[in-house]
Amino acid sequence: MIKRIGSTIFLWGLAGVFFFYFGGDASVWLLAFLSFGTQWEFYGLLEKMGRKPFKNSGTALGTIMIVGPYYASKSDHVHIEGIQSGIIAIAIVACCLRILNERDSSDRIETLGSTLLGLIYIPFMLAFLVRILELPGDELHGLMLIAWTVGVAKFCDIGALLFGKAFGKHQMSPKMSPKKTWEGAVGGCLVSIGVGFAISHFGAPYLPPFFNSFWGTLFALPIAIVSIISDLVESVIKRRADQKDSGKFIPGIGGAFDLTDSLILSAPVAFLLLGLIS
Fold this sequence. Notes:
- The protein has one domain.
- The protein is built from 10 helices and 2 strands.
- It has helices at 2-22, 24-48, 55-72, 80-102, 108-134, 139-167, 182-202, 213-218, 220-240, 256-277, and strands at 171-173, 177-181.
- The protein has a two-stranded antiparallel sheet with strand order 1-2.
- Strand 1 and strand 2 form a beta hairpin.
- Helix 1 (2-22) crosses helix 2 and helix 1 (2-22) runs antiparallel to helix 6.
- 44% of the residues are buried.
């Protein structure tokens, strides 16, 4: 647990440097790097299940899905939705062409499905963080909204861990993730609400006018709940692949997938909620 908390603090410090020192470009490329690692590990887990996704082309297209909309948004004549849809369409065409020659007839559909699943489930979903960056029309305000989203989602995980260790008695999902408890989930939600309030209150000068401490506190709960669900989905995938962690390069946490798991479903929900008030 100490390693996990230490790694979390270090990674938060690193993210803060990228966010507020290097600006939007570096932050988007950091997200693209994490998305690439997550997608690569996801494909690795699918391979352990007997699937054969196109890892190289899938992760390459996934990286474009993260950085493409960001740079496209700098032009007044390009729509982000069109870029994302176009990448998915190209991926479908490319995969259909490749499976005709590069896979046995017995697993061609599985290859197509697993490759596209990795593309849609990870970079497409994480790309909503990039769209949050563009919501206020000001880079600093957008970076702070991303910081709020990531803080609420990730600190739910830390809160759930601490409260679960201290008070956990009732398993939330024994088959999917035996260590997760209802007490931990409630504690994680409470921590997220506190973090959501703190960032939106003390960071008010750097946030867009439409986002105040009321919305920062109110929206924290649904983000926290979705982050728990997102974490459980990763647990299902890892259990099916018979793996404890998706990787081993982050001490106490695991791999990139273990780091971004709670953000995959939280990012689009946060974008939807913030879009309602922007």
